[in-house]
Target: Nicotinate phosphoribosyltransferase
Amino acid sequence: MNDKAIPNDRSTALLTDKYELTMLQAALRDGSANRQVTCEVFGRRLPNERRYGVVAGTERVLRAVEDFRFSANQLAEMDFLDDKTKEYLRHYRFSGQIDGYREGELYFPNSPILTVRGTFGECLVLETVILSIMNADSAVASAASRMVTAADGRPIIEMGSRRTHEYAAVTSARAAYLAGFDATSNLEAGYCYGIPVSGTAAHSWTLAHTNPDGTPNEEAAFRSQIDTLGVDTTLLVDTYDITKGVETAVKVGGPKLGGVRIDSGDLGAVTRRVRKKLDDLGNHNTNIVVSSDLDEFAIAGLRGDPVDAYGVGTSVVTGSGAPTAGMVYKVVEVDGIPVAKRSSSKQSVGGAKRALRTYRSSGVAVEEIVYPFEAAAPDTGQLDTREMTIPLMRDGHIVDGLPDLHASREYLAKARKTLPWEGLALSRDEAAVPTRMVGFKK
Amino acid sequence: MNDKAIPNDRSTALLTDKYELTMLQAALRDGSANRQVTCEVFGRRLPNERRYGVVAGTERVLRAVEDFRFSANQLAEMDFLDDKTKEYLRHYRFSGQIDGYREGELYFPNSPILTVRGTFGECLVLETVILSIMNADSAVASAASRMVTAADGRPIIEMGSRRTHEYAAVTSARAAYLAGFDATSNLEAGYCYGIPVSGTAAHSWTLAHTNPDGTPNEEAAFRSQIDTLGVDTTLLVDTYDITKGVETAVKVGGPKLGGVRIDSGDLGAVTRRVRKKLDDLGNHNTNIVVSSDLDEFAIAGLRGDPVDAYGVGTSVVTGSGAPTAGMVYKVVEVDGIPVAKRSSSKQSVGGAKRALRTYRSSGVAVEEIVYPFEAAAPDTGQLDTREMTIPLMRDGHIVDGLPDLHASREYLAKARKTLPWEGLALSRDEAAVPTRMVGFKK
Model:
């Protein structure tokens, strides 16, 4: 029995598809490894006809690129490579440039999210790890952002660790926090990223206080939880009868009880009943926390009900119907020549790109203009503009002063306010902001 | 900038929801931490009304439980815990028993997939990491197994790393291989789990051979690939015009060319055209590999077409519409007393459980019988039976002689043959094998 999936040395170099290394071997042999290329990360469409996407994972990508080194042990394993290729990989260190959208930025179909420039050899081998991170993190952040809007100012706690890969759980907590969630249940995410960690109690807690004769003892469970965690804790009241659970909670916790959590049933009807019960008992300041398979639609549906906080699990860590953002990484320029796949579907526009976004004086976004990377910014008349494409990596080093997770979270909260009103709708439709390509040859 | 999501010391102990440790603190204080409990991993239903699920992740779970230790650094971070709890965690080592379904076994709604026995304290804290692994791995394996059936003996290569979290990519490759996929593109999965790794080439390869004047040079790309990787390589022929791509591939590779890959278009029509072209050129032994958003339905739809191998990405790593298996971990017994949540939805049956499956003499499964863990096996008349529940961990140690990944893969291939014919249907319906609870009080 052996599980080496989490390597001790943290190298990201084998989080890679084999064909990248066999192509590298051929490219070293025929010389194309030294051609200067530009690779672009973009999404052809937004999943499920959503109105916008959220760029997430950028910081993790830059870190993974810096960490992309092959250890002697890893190279020794790869008997399918010739010595020249192994020697190249032994010294591999990305030395190129990365520009792109900052983390927490909104994106739309064909937004040039990352522009990676360097030799074909050095850019080629980064495809998988860059896409894995961007696709996973952006999927979660894009779904989470819709939930934050649906919650309309009420706090949301991410508690989906148990529904996704154990390490995806950690980065999902990060992506949800970026999108505006208030806390996570995941300890590792708190430890790694400084995200607030919170939690209540499980049904197992109440069940573990069953009397020796087999009768329930919810009161003992509640009393012990309050004794240890204080009266501002949140008690889970739906293990047996919810109404009795609330009565017992108030009996034990008194008027200062922090909250009750409800994890089953018709949450709208139940929260109204529980709110009335709490108020009748004088517990006007005791909060109601709800969980139980909530997604953005269920959250929106509870907007008129007395909910003080949401706990969201499965739907956020699985991207609420879109578990991957569907971004691709394509060579768009070779030695200054725009290139693109041409056959049938999946066509794209060749050439290195950058983008700006225009805004009305009210601050509402009008359109995104994508133009050649080396060209001057197009004239946008009297509209305000913001450059979307910023330097992220220079000569293989992460540029100084990039915003951290907390700053990116604040940035996104403001960026969401630039969407036209239909941009926050949960229904399916076109992207809220159109993307226009300017200055490219067809 | 800091990404510590992949810890150097590989401890799994913080892949945990905070409430598990706060409940532990209260349980240590009130004594309930010492009560003997049984926790059960099961799924209330199969996602998307599938006919069966595949148990995957068991070996990884057992390993994670063995590795579940708290380092001094981790404990120092947890300022929300009292000294007694930190002391308990400092010495934490699971010392209980785990029984359950072997990896690669089929499961159905309410199958008692894992039965974890120990003190409440030691079982409580394992909830998140056990569920994360089982839910992620079983989701992928369950989807992959349907694809293997749909492929009807043709090989499938897993190539979805870029569409999921960078470490989920590695374990997804493992789960897909367990389910019968033949290879993966992911190098780390090959390195960690001994899975065959394969690959072809990307469009970037062809595009990187664009002439200095901007004209395409597919021939140079193909020639270089064959020079380096040999004539049995697979050439990607759909960067420009597919028919010309095939002609160029045969011109360069000759009659012994290994294969061509097609990654776009109407794959049925295109493969028929390409097969005819290859045959007309005398390349009867050149294989056709297809990729491009394939799922089990698309694979089945190509059954009558001249496809020699499938490359499957997004759909398999995202569980083809069911990115999590939806398993839960519930306390079902406390000091020998069966317990269960009783309110409204999400009811379950209390009591520690084990299961056997019955079969006709033809080998076809009839039903799954779930019965009390300590009871004698129920009489199943003249039907053949197989005990589903086997010892996996004893006193905190993984039992000797558990099957490895390759053995589990073979086991699953045989287990699939025990399904009634409708069990292999891709349409939505009830589980193929009914589960019956025997000997439990309601």
Summary: Chain A has two domains: 18-140+322-437, 151-317. The first strand of chain A starts at residue 36 and ends at 43. DSSP finds 15 helices and 19 strands in chain A. The two ends of chain A are 55 Å apart (CA to CA).
